[in-house]
Q: What sequence folds into this?
């Protein structure tokens, strides 16, 4: 079938644009654009046929359909020719059954969606494959784009640099100086991107990159561009597929720029409209207390929203005070009977360390989501029988200082709750045996 998708104003003024247009906001009302699909045509295929098609493709080797994103190409971006797709077989990430951690909380059906088990180590790969593939097609058809660019707190820059490098497209990265980890900084550098370290925060980088993106030769790769959202919405589809098309009760996701919240909702709503699923989950957005504009809005019933100056937080990727996707996220949370909660620096660090002791290795942003999970269980918002999915957005390996600093306390400082510092001993058998015995008997 000749499936089609296009940009449409998300604020209701009905303006439409081609996906190959270099445009990010409606020319009529300045609202953000959304990708829309010909749902009537998609509905001509039965829900069972969609499931069968996706099962046939999932994690297979026929390029590009073995990708967790491109295996659902018809629901993501059917306009891109296969020859123009830049894929690293993103998606297909593990659903970790957190049975030990869940048992500690009184939950028997807790799962962690390990989106950090991806090419560049975060869920950003899911959206970047779609965006860079579209840029690749535009260049091959018209040749008018000179470079792709983004502002980033780390993970977006890594994904953009890798996919642009694979496509042979120049990438320009704007990062806030000294606010990303060394491991995140080296990723775009290694992939050959022009990396600009600016003396500002993420919001300052975002303001500059949007001005640059007003020039038609530069293509903006931040989540203000809804092509990114189309790829990220496959997280929802993959979760349901991994549960044999059953829908969980709750999904908890960290929120910074908030494109991931709206993407999560889009995936579920699309499956619901196609009859693939027959209910929707509830969504909880987790924010760091030091960067919590959505949480503050939630406290007013979403009747008010004000940008803030985000304070320094260990959850650097969500240290954002003026999220570009806030209105889309609010609409999603209202549709999904969602909630927003926050975590302090101690709560997020303790939650990550506690879960690490059950076999995980969490990034600080996942720690925010886990801290909110613990609060929701304590408040009995989550029932013991609920199936709960926590979205882990990135690998903990990107944040070694966060992990090391937790277990490396200076003398005289109060130890964190789950401290597990190495014990220095002389190389003496009896001393070693005595220390082992003390540990096992504790």
A:
């Amino acid at each position: 079938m000749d499936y089609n998708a296009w940009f449409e104003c998300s604020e209701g003024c009905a303006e439409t644009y081609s996906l190959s247009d270099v445009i990010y906001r409606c020319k009529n009302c300045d609202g953000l654009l959304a990708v829309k699909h010909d749902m009537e045509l998609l509905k001509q295929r039965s829900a069972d046929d969609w499931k069968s098609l996706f099962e046939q493709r999932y994690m297979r080797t026929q390029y590009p359909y073995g990708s967790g994103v491109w295996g659902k190409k018809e629901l993501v971006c059917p306009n891109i020719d296969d020859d123009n797709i830049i894929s690293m077989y993103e998606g297909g990430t593990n659903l970790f059954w957190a049975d030990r951690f869940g048992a500690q909380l009184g939950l028997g059906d807790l799962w962690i969606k390990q989106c950090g088990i991806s090419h560049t180590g975060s869920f950003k790969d899911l959206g970047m494959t779609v965006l860079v593939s579209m840029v690749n097609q535009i260049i091959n058809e018209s040749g008018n784009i000179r470079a792709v660019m983004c502002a980033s707190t780390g993970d977006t820059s890594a994904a953009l640099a890798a996919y642009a490098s694979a496509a042979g497209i120049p990438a320009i990265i704007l990062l806030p100086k000294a606010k990303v980890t060394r491991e995140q900084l080296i990723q775009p550098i290694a992939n050959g991107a022009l990396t600009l370290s600016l003396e500002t925060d993420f919001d300052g980088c975002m303001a500059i990159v949007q001005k640059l993106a007003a020039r038609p030769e530069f293509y903006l790769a931040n989540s203000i561009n809804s092509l990114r959202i189309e790829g990220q919405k496959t997280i929802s589809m993959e979760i349901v597929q991994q549960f044999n098309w059953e829908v969980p009760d709750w999904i908890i996701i960290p929120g910074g720029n908030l494109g991931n919240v709206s993407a999560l909702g889009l995936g579920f709503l699309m499956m619901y409209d196609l009859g693939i699923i027959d209910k929707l989950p509830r969504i909880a957005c987790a924010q760091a207390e030091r960067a919590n504009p959505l949480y503050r809005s939630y406290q007013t019933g979403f009747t008010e929203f004000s940008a803030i100056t985000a304070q320094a937080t260990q959850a650097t990727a969500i240290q954002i005070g003026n999220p570009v996707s806030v209105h889309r996220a609010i609409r999603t949370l209202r549709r999904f009977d969602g909630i927003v909660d926050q975590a302090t620096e101690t709560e997020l660090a303790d939650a990550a360390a506690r879960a690490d002791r059950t076999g995980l290795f969490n990034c600080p942003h996942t720690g925010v989501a886990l801290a909110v999970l613990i609060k929701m269980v304590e408040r009995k918002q989550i029932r013991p029988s609920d199936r709960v999915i926590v979205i882990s957005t990135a690998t903990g390996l990107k944040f070694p200082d966060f992990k090391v600093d937790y277990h490396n306390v200076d003398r005289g400082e109060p130890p964190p709750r789950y401290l597990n510092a190495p014990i220095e001993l002389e190389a003496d058998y009896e001393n070693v045996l005595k220390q082992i015995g003390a540990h096992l008997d504790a």
Summary: The mean pLDDT is 95. The first strand starts at residue 5 and ends at 9. The longest helix spans residues 124-141. The domain at 95-120+229-403 is CATH 3.40.50.1100 (Rossmann fold).
